[in-house]
Amino acid sequence: MSEPGSEGTRRSTAATLRRLAEDHRAPRISIADLLSALSDHGFGLLLLLLALPNAVPGPLIPGFSVPFAVGIAVLGLQLALGMHTPRLPRRLQRLSMDVARFGRVVDRTEPLLLRLERWLRPRPSGFTDGPGERLVGVALMALSVVLALPVPFGNTPVALSIIVIALGQLEGDGVALLAGIVAGLAATLWNGVLIAAGAELLHVAEHLI
User: Fold this and answer.
1) Which sign does the torsion angle of CA 137, 77, 163, 54 carry?
2) What is the pLDDT of residues 110-119, one digit of tens each?
3) pLDDT, tens digit, 9 for 90 and up, residues 47-86
4) Residue environment code for 74-111, b if the CB has 16+ CB neighbours within 10 A, otherwise e
5) Integer distance in angstroms from the first to the last C-alpha of the chain?
């Protein structure tokens, strides 16, 4: 990660995450640790880090996505209120992940990030400033609610849409922000389909018993 003011030599998001995974010496890495290292890129990279664990397929653990969804909702609210740097309650700042596990998440998601970064670049639009940026915050709040739902196979598409929004925030890319919001709408509809299908299966099962 480059120092503030050295925008031309700023590390890519994938490189920044790799550096965090390799250089952090404590056994756990907390959100407070990340905030202290992120400078003015706090919103984008925090959103990315909160979404990444839910984008990695794995066993269904009830309630796993809830703490991450709460963090995303808080960040979305702050963007909707027009804040330019993230402010988190101490309880959320203390949320942490084992460094080894964080490294595994980086290992598994780095190829995806590198592919996405190929088409990311600063592209100012109505979503990168003013009322549009507030709308992005509202969209993140809505997506956090969907992410918190215990829907099998539902978290990954929501998390991926949040990742695209996060990368758009990091790069000031209005096209990526729009793409993330559209993908989030599609992911929300997908979750609705899964919920409806699950309800129908329960209804059929009740009649078979």
Assistant:
1) negative
2) 887 888 788 8
3) 988 898 888 765 567 678 888 999 899 899 999 998 877 8
4) bbbebbbeeeeebebeeebbebbeebeebbebbeebbe
5) 59
